[in-house]
Amino acid sequence: MILAEAYPTYTDGEIEGVQIRNLKSHHDNRGWLIEIFRHDELDQDLWPVMTYVSSTLPGVARGPHEHVDQTDGFAFIGPSDFRLYLWDTREGSPTKGNRKVVTLGVSRPAAVWIPPGVVHAYRNVGTEPGLVFNAPNRLYAGWGKKEKVDEIRHEEADPRMFPMD
Fold first, then answer.
1. Most CB atoms closer than 10 Å: which of 65, 106, 113, 122?
2. What is the span of the domain harbouring residue 26?
3. If DSSP codes are grouped into helix, strand and coil, which group holds residue 84?
4. If pLDDT is split at 50, 70 and 90, which confidence band does 139 have?
5. Is the bond preceding 79 in cis, omega lying within 30 degrees of 0?
6. Is 87 helix (H, G, I), strand (E, B) or coil?
7. What is the DSSP code string of 19-81?
């Protein structure tokens, strides 16, 4: 008899430590501006040490992955929408086993801070390439890019481990 492989099950719900802040767009006759980060609105241990922007094509997903020590500070502002997936697999977390799925971007501009150990991924669910800004609180590959990258990648894992519906 072959036993079915056990896959984790998740309950939809909040995840401790994840912060989602809706962003306000300020428009005038020149265009618009959105504040993504302010020191007075975020705990100091989450302050960014670098920033980068990525473009993701429609239908394409990035992740799932997680970090051991790094907090990601994403901003989804458009010109497309993204479905963000979060899974709490952290031992000792009061929300372990929860999954949160939220759509952010042009329809709901938001900044999201994802703490270490929370598995995360996003998919462009819009019809055009979309931009995602990231302002992590750790340098990629450390100072001078000479350290091990703080990333545990799950992209090659069985999709039933981290379902993205």
1. 122
2. 11-139
3. strand
4. very high
5. yes
6. strand
7. EEEE--EEEETTEEEE----GGGS-GGG--S--EEEEE-TT-EEEEEE-SSPPEEEEEEESSE
Q: 61 near 139, Cβ under 8 Å?
A: no
Asked whether the bond before 64 is cis by omega within 30 degrees of 0, the reply is: yes
Q: If DSSP codes are grouped into helix, strand and coil, which group holds residue 92?
A: coil
Domain total in the chain: 1
What CATH number does residue 112 fall under?
A: 2.60.120.10
- The helix or strand, by DSSP H or E, that contains position 11, with its residue range, turns out to be strand 11-12
Residue 4, pLDDT > 90, answer no
112 within 8 A of 22, measured Cβ to Cβ = no
As a residue count, the chain comes to 165
- What does the alpha-carbon distance between residue 79 and residue 124 come to, in Å, rounded to a whole number? 10
Q: What percent of the chain has pLDDT over 90?
A: 91
For strands 98-105 and 11-12, give the pairing: parallel
